[in-house]
Amino acid sequence: MAHSLESVPWYGVKGIQMTTELTIGRLANEAGVNVETIRYYQRRGLMAEPDKPTSGHRRYASDAIKRVRFIKRAQVLGFTLDEVGSLLDLDEACACVETRELAAHKLQVIEEKLADLKAM
């Protein structure tokens, strides 16, 4: 029996969705948070809620992972969610100056808290 390689038109990438869109569960998992955290950020206006397609499952772009990680990192550094919202709203053209100002203010607040703790 002879073997041959023939092109099979239905085989290949057809039907495979090469996408970077994520479900809310996968987004939460990739970002290291809980699904309810994503929903909370949406209610707070820190993240946009994607439109719900006819399939019923919202899909998030892969850059949403970076946004969630940024929010969590800013919280770890002591920024409140309101302050994080301000950071996220900054125009990219002038973001460096404003970000430095917000960070300097936050550093001052933290240093004041440290001084208060040392005085105890």
From TrEMBL:
It comes from the Eukaryota. The keyword Manganese does not apply. PROSITE patterns: HTH_MERR_1, HTH_MERR_2. One of its GO terms (molecular function) is DNA-binding transcription factor activity. The keyword Transcription applies. This is Mercuric resistance operon regulatory protein. It holds the Pfam family MerR_1.
